[in-house]
Amino acid sequence: xxxxxxxxxxxxxxxxxxxxxxxxxxxxxxxxxxxxxxxxxxxxxxxxxxxxxxxxxxxxxxxxxxxxxxxxxxxxxxxxxxxxxxxxxxxxxxxxxxxxxxxxxxxxxxxxxxxxxxxxxxxxxxxxxxxxxxxxxxxxxxxxxxxxxxxxxxxxxxxxxxxxxxxxxxxxxxxxxxxxxxxxxxxxxxxxxxxxxxxxxxxxxxxxxxxxxxxxxxxxxxxxxxxxxxxxxxxxxxxxxxxxxxxxxxxxxxxxxxxxxxxxxxxxxxxxxxxxxxxxxxxxxxxxxxxxxxxxxxxxxxxxxxxxxxxxxxxxxxxxxxxxxxxxxxxxxxxxxxxxxxxxxxxxxxxxxxxxxxxxxxxxxxxxxxxxxxxxxxxxxxxx
Length: 384
Fold this sequence. Notes:
Elements: H1 2-18, E1 23-28, E2 40-43, E3 58-63, E4 68-69, E5 71-73, E6 78-81, E7 90-98, E8 107-112, E9 118-123, E10 127-130, H2 136-139, E11 145-150, H3 157-165, E12 178-179, E13 190-197, E14 200-201, E15 209-215, E16 219-231, E17 234-245, E18 250-257, E19 263-270, E20 277-281, E21 286-290, E22 300-305, E23 312-321, E24 328-340, E25 346-354, H4 362-377, E26 381-383
Antiparallel strand pairs: 1-7, 1-26, 2-6, 3-4, 3-7, 5-6, 8-9, 9-10, 10-11, 11-12, 13-14, 13-19, 15-16, 16-17, 17-18, 18-25, 19-24, 20-21, 21-22, 22-25, 23-24
Protein backbone atom coordinates (compact mmCIF):
# COMPACT_ATOMS: atom_id res chain seq x y z
CA UNK A 1 0.00 0.00 0.00
CA UNK A 2 2.83 2.35 0.85
CA UNK A 3 4.50 1.65 -2.52
CA UNK A 4 1.23 2.29 -4.37
CA UNK A 5 0.79 5.59 -2.52
CA UNK A 6 4.33 6.68 -3.41
CA UNK A 7 3.75 5.74 -7.06
CA UNK A 8 0.53 7.76 -7.19
CA UNK A 9 2.28 10.71 -5.56
CA UNK A 10 5.07 10.58 -8.12
CA UNK A 11 2.63 10.41 -11.05
CA UNK A 12 0.67 13.36 -9.60
CA UNK A 13 3.90 15.37 -9.23
CA UNK A 14 4.99 14.59 -12.78
CA UNK A 15 1.56 15.56 -14.12
CA UNK A 16 1.58 18.85 -12.25
CA UNK A 17 5.06 19.68 -13.53
CA UNK A 18 4.08 18.98 -17.14
CA UNK A 19 0.80 20.89 -16.99
CA UNK A 20 0.94 24.00 -19.12
CA UNK A 21 0.82 27.17 -17.06
CA UNK A 22 -1.20 30.03 -18.45
CA UNK A 23 -3.07 33.22 -17.68
CA UNK A 24 -6.51 34.02 -19.02
CA UNK A 25 -6.92 37.62 -20.15
CA UNK A 26 -10.27 39.17 -21.03
CA UNK A 27 -10.09 42.30 -23.19
CA UNK A 28 -13.13 44.56 -23.51
CA UNK A 29 -13.82 47.40 -25.94
CA UNK A 30 -15.70 50.07 -23.93
CA UNK A 31 -16.35 52.21 -27.02
CA UNK A 32 -19.39 52.32 -29.30
CA UNK A 33 -17.22 51.87 -32.40
CA UNK A 34 -15.11 48.98 -33.70
CA UNK A 35 -11.44 48.75 -32.72
CA UNK A 36 -10.33 45.97 -35.03
CA UNK A 37 -6.66 46.82 -35.52
CA UNK A 38 -5.74 48.38 -32.16
CA UNK A 39 -3.09 46.56 -30.11
CA UNK A 40 -3.64 45.63 -26.49
CA UNK A 41 -0.62 45.82 -24.17
CA UNK A 42 -0.08 43.28 -21.38
CA UNK A 43 2.81 44.20 -19.04
CA UNK A 44 5.10 41.18 -18.78
CA UNK A 45 5.74 41.92 -15.10
CA UNK A 46 2.06 41.22 -14.34
CA UNK A 47 2.27 37.63 -15.59
CA UNK A 48 5.90 36.53 -15.29
CA UNK A 49 5.37 35.10 -11.79
CA UNK A 50 2.45 33.03 -13.06
CA UNK A 51 4.10 31.92 -16.30
CA UNK A 52 7.84 31.39 -15.80
CA UNK A 53 9.95 31.17 -18.94
CA UNK A 54 12.43 28.32 -19.27
CA UNK A 55 14.96 27.26 -21.89
CA UNK A 56 14.01 28.50 -25.38
CA UNK A 57 10.32 29.02 -24.70
CA UNK A 58 8.63 32.37 -25.34
CA UNK A 59 5.26 33.85 -24.50
CA UNK A 60 2.51 32.97 -26.96
CA UNK A 61 -1.10 34.15 -27.14
CA UNK A 62 -3.98 31.82 -27.97
CA UNK A 63 -7.70 32.17 -28.47
CA UNK A 64 -9.98 30.15 -26.18
CA UNK A 65 -10.24 27.67 -29.08
CA UNK A 66 -6.47 27.11 -28.87
CA UNK A 67 -5.44 29.02 -32.00
CA UNK A 68 -2.10 30.84 -31.71
CA UNK A 69 -2.40 34.46 -32.87
CA UNK A 70 0.41 36.91 -33.75
CA UNK A 71 1.98 38.62 -30.74
CA UNK A 72 5.19 40.46 -29.87
CA UNK A 73 7.28 41.14 -26.78
CA UNK A 74 8.41 44.76 -26.88
CA UNK A 75 11.56 46.48 -25.63
CA UNK A 76 9.60 48.06 -22.77
CA UNK A 77 8.42 44.65 -21.51
CA UNK A 78 4.94 44.34 -22.92
CA UNK A 79 3.16 41.57 -24.78
CA UNK A 80 1.12 43.08 -27.59
CA UNK A 81 -1.49 41.55 -29.90
CA UNK A 82 -4.63 42.53 -31.83
CA UNK A 83 -7.82 41.38 -30.05
CA UNK A 84 -9.90 42.66 -33.02
CA UNK A 85 -12.86 43.91 -31.02
CA UNK A 86 -16.13 45.24 -32.37
CA UNK A 87 -18.07 47.95 -30.54
CA UNK A 88 -18.66 47.02 -26.86
CA UNK A 89 -17.32 43.50 -27.49
CA UNK A 90 -15.08 41.48 -25.17
CA UNK A 91 -12.93 38.42 -25.86
CA UNK A 92 -10.85 36.10 -23.72
CA UNK A 93 -7.31 35.04 -24.63
CA UNK A 94 -4.80 32.69 -23.07
CA UNK A 95 -1.18 33.71 -22.54
CA UNK A 96 1.13 30.75 -22.12
CA UNK A 97 4.58 29.57 -23.24
CA UNK A 98 5.65 27.79 -26.38
CA UNK A 99 8.21 27.60 -29.14
CA UNK A 100 9.10 30.82 -30.93
CA UNK A 101 6.69 31.53 -33.78
CA UNK A 102 7.34 33.30 -37.08
CA UNK A 103 4.55 35.71 -37.95
CA UNK A 104 4.11 37.81 -41.06
CA UNK A 105 5.61 41.21 -40.31
CA UNK A 106 3.22 44.15 -40.62
CA UNK A 107 5.66 46.85 -39.48
CA UNK A 108 9.24 47.61 -40.47
CA UNK A 109 11.90 50.29 -40.26
CA UNK A 110 15.59 50.75 -40.96
CA UNK A 111 18.40 53.19 -41.67
CA UNK A 112 18.77 53.55 -45.43
CA UNK A 113 22.54 53.86 -45.69
CA UNK A 114 22.37 53.56 -49.47
CA UNK A 115 20.27 56.79 -49.67
CA UNK A 116 21.96 59.51 -47.57
CA UNK A 117 21.03 57.97 -44.20
CA UNK A 118 17.27 58.27 -44.45
CA UNK A 119 15.42 56.48 -41.67
CA UNK A 120 12.24 54.99 -43.12
CA UNK A 121 9.44 53.19 -41.33
CA UNK A 122 6.09 51.71 -42.39
CA UNK A 123 3.23 49.36 -41.60
CA UNK A 124 0.52 47.74 -43.68
CA UNK A 125 -1.21 51.12 -44.14
CA UNK A 126 1.27 54.02 -44.22
CA UNK A 127 4.97 54.90 -44.64
CA UNK A 128 7.21 57.71 -43.35
CA UNK A 129 10.82 58.81 -43.30
CA UNK A 130 13.16 61.22 -41.51
CA UNK A 131 16.32 62.66 -43.04
CA UNK A 132 19.77 61.73 -41.81
CA UNK A 133 23.10 63.56 -41.49
CA UNK A 134 24.51 62.66 -44.91
CA UNK A 135 21.85 64.76 -46.64
CA UNK A 136 22.72 68.07 -44.96
CA UNK A 137 25.72 68.84 -47.20
CA UNK A 138 23.61 68.21 -50.31
CA UNK A 139 20.20 69.71 -49.53
CA UNK A 140 20.71 71.66 -46.31
CA UNK A 141 19.05 70.83 -43.00
CA UNK A 142 15.59 69.23 -42.99
CA UNK A 143 14.14 68.38 -39.59
CA UNK A 144 10.62 67.38 -40.65
CA UNK A 145 8.87 64.09 -41.33
CA UNK A 146 8.23 62.92 -44.87
CA UNK A 147 5.33 60.66 -45.87
CA UNK A 148 5.06 58.09 -48.61
CA UNK A 149 1.50 57.59 -49.83
CA UNK A 150 0.76 53.88 -49.83
CA UNK A 151 -2.19 52.03 -51.33
CA UNK A 152 -1.08 48.50 -50.60
CA UNK A 153 -0.88 46.35 -47.48
CA UNK A 154 2.55 45.15 -48.54
CA UNK A 155 5.75 46.50 -46.98
CA UNK A 156 7.37 48.59 -49.71
CA UNK A 157 10.37 50.45 -48.25
CA UNK A 158 13.09 48.09 -49.46
CA UNK A 159 11.55 47.62 -52.91
CA UNK A 160 10.92 51.31 -53.53
CA UNK A 161 14.47 52.31 -52.55
CA UNK A 162 16.03 49.43 -54.50
CA UNK A 163 14.07 50.16 -57.68
CA UNK A 164 14.63 53.91 -57.43
CA UNK A 165 18.38 53.65 -56.90
CA UNK A 166 18.69 51.10 -59.70
CA UNK A 167 16.78 53.34 -62.10
CA UNK A 168 14.06 50.72 -62.53
CA UNK A 169 11.17 52.75 -61.13
CA UNK A 170 11.09 56.10 -59.33
CA UNK A 171 9.18 56.21 -56.06
CA UNK A 172 8.09 59.71 -57.08
CA UNK A 173 5.72 58.02 -59.54
CA UNK A 174 2.84 55.72 -58.66
CA UNK A 175 3.85 52.35 -60.08
CA UNK A 176 0.94 50.47 -58.57
CA UNK A 177 1.37 50.74 -54.81
CA UNK A 178 1.67 54.46 -54.16
CA UNK A 179 4.35 57.15 -54.34
CA UNK A 180 6.29 59.95 -52.63
CA UNK A 181 4.80 63.28 -53.66
CA UNK A 182 5.13 65.14 -50.35
CA UNK A 183 7.36 68.24 -50.06
CA UNK A 184 9.24 68.85 -46.80
CA UNK A 185 12.14 71.29 -47.25
CA UNK A 186 13.15 73.27 -44.14
CA UNK A 187 9.90 72.60 -42.31
CA UNK A 188 8.19 70.25 -39.86
CA UNK A 189 6.87 68.39 -42.88
CA UNK A 190 4.17 65.89 -41.93
CA UNK A 191 3.91 66.31 -38.18
CA UNK A 192 7.34 66.79 -36.60
CA UNK A 193 7.76 68.99 -33.50
CA UNK A 194 9.96 71.95 -32.53
CA UNK A 195 10.23 74.50 -29.70
CA UNK A 196 7.87 77.44 -30.28
CA UNK A 197 9.47 80.46 -28.64
CA UNK A 198 8.10 83.99 -29.01
CA UNK A 199 5.88 82.84 -31.86
CA UNK A 200 8.83 81.38 -33.72
CA UNK A 201 9.72 77.76 -34.52
CA UNK A 202 13.27 76.67 -33.63
CA UNK A 203 13.85 73.85 -36.08
CA UNK A 204 16.76 71.50 -35.50
CA UNK A 205 18.85 69.80 -38.19
CA UNK A 206 18.60 66.23 -39.49
CA UNK A 207 18.91 63.48 -36.88
CA UNK A 208 22.46 62.73 -35.73
CA UNK A 209 22.02 59.09 -34.69
CA UNK A 210 19.36 56.38 -34.59
CA UNK A 211 18.57 53.21 -32.63
CA UNK A 212 15.98 50.54 -33.40
CA UNK A 213 14.19 49.25 -30.29
CA UNK A 214 11.48 47.04 -31.85
CA UNK A 215 11.05 45.87 -35.42
CA UNK A 216 7.84 43.93 -35.96
CA UNK A 217 5.86 41.94 -36.50
CA UNK A 218 3.23 44.20 -34.88
CA UNK A 219 5.17 47.26 -33.71
CA UNK A 220 8.31 49.06 -34.86
CA UNK A 221 9.95 51.47 -32.41
CA UNK A 222 13.09 53.54 -32.87
CA UNK A 223 14.82 56.53 -31.36
CA UNK A 224 16.27 59.52 -33.19
CA UNK A 225 18.79 61.74 -31.41
CA UNK A 226 19.52 65.28 -32.59
CA UNK A 227 22.24 67.83 -31.94
CA UNK A 228 21.67 70.24 -29.05
CA UNK A 229 19.52 73.29 -29.71
CA UNK A 230 20.22 76.81 -28.50
CA UNK A 231 17.04 77.98 -26.77
CA UNK A 232 17.44 81.48 -25.31
CA UNK A 233 21.12 80.82 -24.64
CA UNK A 234 20.54 77.40 -23.07
CA UNK A 235 21.67 74.09 -24.53
CA UNK A 236 18.66 71.83 -25.00
CA UNK A 237 19.04 68.19 -26.06
CA UNK A 238 16.40 66.68 -28.34
CA UNK A 239 15.29 63.08 -28.75
CA UNK A 240 12.33 61.53 -30.59
CA UNK A 241 11.06 58.03 -29.84
CA UNK A 242 8.74 56.93 -32.63
CA UNK A 243 6.59 53.82 -32.83
CA UNK A 244 4.15 52.54 -35.44
CA UNK A 245 1.64 49.74 -34.87
CA UNK A 246 0.18 47.37 -37.42
CA UNK A 247 -3.07 48.68 -38.87
CA UNK A 248 -2.64 52.25 -37.62
CA UNK A 249 -2.66 55.38 -39.77
CA UNK A 250 -0.67 57.28 -37.12
CA UNK A 251 2.85 57.08 -35.72
CA UNK A 252 3.26 57.69 -32.00
CA UNK A 253 5.94 60.28 -31.18
CA UNK A 254 7.43 60.80 -27.72
CA UNK A 255 9.30 64.12 -28.01
CA UNK A 256 11.78 64.90 -25.24
CA UNK A 257 13.67 68.13 -24.63
CA UNK A 258 16.02 68.53 -21.65
CA UNK A 259 14.59 71.67 -20.09
CA UNK A 260 14.48 73.13 -16.59
CA UNK A 261 11.43 75.34 -17.14
CA UNK A 262 8.17 74.75 -19.04
CA UNK A 263 8.58 75.39 -22.77
CA UNK A 264 6.02 75.82 -25.53
CA UNK A 265 6.41 73.35 -28.39
CA UNK A 266 4.48 72.89 -31.62
CA UNK A 267 3.87 70.03 -34.02
CA UNK A 268 2.28 70.59 -37.37
CA UNK A 269 2.21 70.38 -41.12
CA UNK A 270 3.67 72.37 -43.97
CA UNK A 271 0.90 74.64 -45.24
CA UNK A 272 0.65 75.07 -48.99
CA UNK A 273 -0.23 78.36 -50.69
CA UNK A 274 -3.70 77.42 -51.95
CA UNK A 275 -6.18 74.60 -52.44
CA UNK A 276 -5.89 73.20 -48.91
CA UNK A 277 -8.27 73.05 -45.95
CA UNK A 278 -7.92 72.90 -42.16
CA UNK A 279 -10.10 71.31 -39.50
CA UNK A 280 -9.10 72.26 -35.95
CA UNK A 281 -10.85 70.51 -33.05
CA UNK A 282 -9.00 71.88 -30.04
CA UNK A 283 -11.49 70.52 -27.52
CA UNK A 284 -11.21 67.02 -29.00
CA UNK A 285 -7.42 67.16 -29.33
CA UNK A 286 -7.01 66.66 -33.06
CA UNK A 287 -6.06 68.66 -36.14
CA UNK A 288 -6.70 67.73 -39.80
CA UNK A 289 -4.96 69.24 -42.80
CA UNK A 290 -6.06 68.39 -46.34
CA UNK A 291 -3.24 68.65 -48.86
CA UNK A 292 -4.15 70.42 -52.11
CA UNK A 293 -4.42 68.43 -55.30
CA UNK A 294 -1.15 68.10 -57.23
CA UNK A 295 -0.34 66.88 -60.71
CA UNK A 296 0.08 63.35 -59.27
CA UNK A 297 -2.03 63.10 -56.11
CA UNK A 298 -5.31 64.23 -54.59
CA UNK A 299 -7.28 63.28 -51.50
CA UNK A 300 -4.42 63.23 -48.98
CA UNK A 301 -5.39 64.10 -45.39
CA UNK A 302 -2.84 64.66 -42.62
CA UNK A 303 -3.76 64.34 -38.97
CA UNK A 304 -2.39 65.19 -35.52
CA UNK A 305 -3.74 63.86 -32.22
CA UNK A 306 -2.60 65.37 -28.90
CA UNK A 307 -3.82 63.21 -25.99
CA UNK A 308 -3.03 66.02 -23.52
CA UNK A 309 -4.81 68.57 -25.73
CA UNK A 310 -3.65 71.70 -27.54
CA UNK A 311 -3.08 75.10 -26.00
CA UNK A 312 -4.09 76.50 -29.39
CA UNK A 313 -3.77 75.97 -33.12
CA UNK A 314 -2.50 78.59 -35.55
CA UNK A 315 -0.89 79.27 -38.90
CA UNK A 316 2.73 80.45 -38.67
CA UNK A 317 4.99 81.66 -41.51
CA UNK A 318 8.67 82.52 -41.98
CA UNK A 319 11.39 82.88 -44.61
CA UNK A 320 14.47 80.66 -44.76
CA UNK A 321 17.63 80.78 -46.87
CA UNK A 322 19.06 77.35 -47.64
CA UNK A 323 22.82 77.42 -46.80
CA UNK A 324 23.59 75.03 -49.67
CA UNK A 325 21.45 76.34 -52.53
CA UNK A 326 21.44 79.95 -51.20
CA UNK A 327 17.77 80.07 -52.23
CA UNK A 328 15.29 81.88 -49.96
CA UNK A 329 11.82 80.34 -49.60
CA UNK A 330 8.76 81.17 -47.57
CA UNK A 331 7.36 78.42 -45.35
CA UNK A 332 4.05 78.24 -43.55
CA UNK A 333 2.76 75.76 -40.99
CA UNK A 334 -0.51 74.68 -39.50
CA UNK A 335 0.47 74.16 -35.85
CA UNK A 336 -0.85 72.57 -32.73
CA UNK A 337 0.82 74.25 -29.77
CA UNK A 338 1.27 72.69 -26.32
CA UNK A 339 3.67 72.98 -23.39
CA UNK A 340 6.36 70.53 -22.36
CA UNK A 341 7.05 70.31 -18.65
CA UNK A 342 10.58 69.54 -17.35
CA UNK A 343 11.33 65.78 -17.37
CA UNK A 344 7.96 64.97 -18.98
CA UNK A 345 8.16 64.33 -22.73
CA UNK A 346 5.25 65.29 -24.99
CA UNK A 347 3.43 62.32 -26.51
CA UNK A 348 1.41 62.83 -29.66
CA UNK A 349 0.39 61.03 -32.87
CA UNK A 350 0.86 62.03 -36.49
CA UNK A 351 -0.07 60.39 -39.77
CA UNK A 352 -2.31 60.49 -42.81
CA UNK A 353 -5.08 58.91 -44.84
CA UNK A 354 -5.50 58.73 -48.60
CA UNK A 355 -8.64 58.65 -50.70
CA UNK A 356 -7.14 55.79 -52.74
CA UNK A 357 -6.62 53.64 -49.64
CA UNK A 358 -9.53 53.58 -47.26
CA UNK A 359 -10.58 57.23 -46.83
CA UNK A 360 -12.77 58.36 -49.73
CA UNK A 361 -13.51 61.75 -48.15
CA UNK A 362 -12.01 64.22 -45.70
CA UNK A 363 -14.92 63.49 -43.36
CA UNK A 364 -14.00 59.79 -43.32
CA UNK A 365 -10.50 60.61 -42.13
CA UNK A 366 -11.75 63.11 -39.59
CA UNK A 367 -14.03 60.41 -38.15
CA UNK A 368 -11.00 58.12 -37.90
CA UNK A 369 -9.12 60.78 -35.92
CA UNK A 370 -12.11 61.45 -33.69
CA UNK A 371 -12.42 57.74 -32.86
CA UNK A 372 -8.65 57.46 -32.38
CA UNK A 373 -8.70 60.37 -29.93
CA UNK A 374 -11.67 58.88 -28.08
CA UNK A 375 -9.95 55.49 -27.87
CA UNK A 376 -6.96 57.08 -26.13
CA UNK A 377 -9.34 58.37 -23.46
CA UNK A 378 -11.21 55.02 -23.31
CA UNK A 379 -8.42 52.40 -23.24
CA UNK A 380 -9.25 48.75 -23.76
CA UNK A 381 -10.21 47.15 -20.44
CA UNK A 382 -8.11 44.20 -19.29
CA UNK A 383 -9.14 41.61 -16.71
CA UNK A 384 -6.86 38.80 -15.57
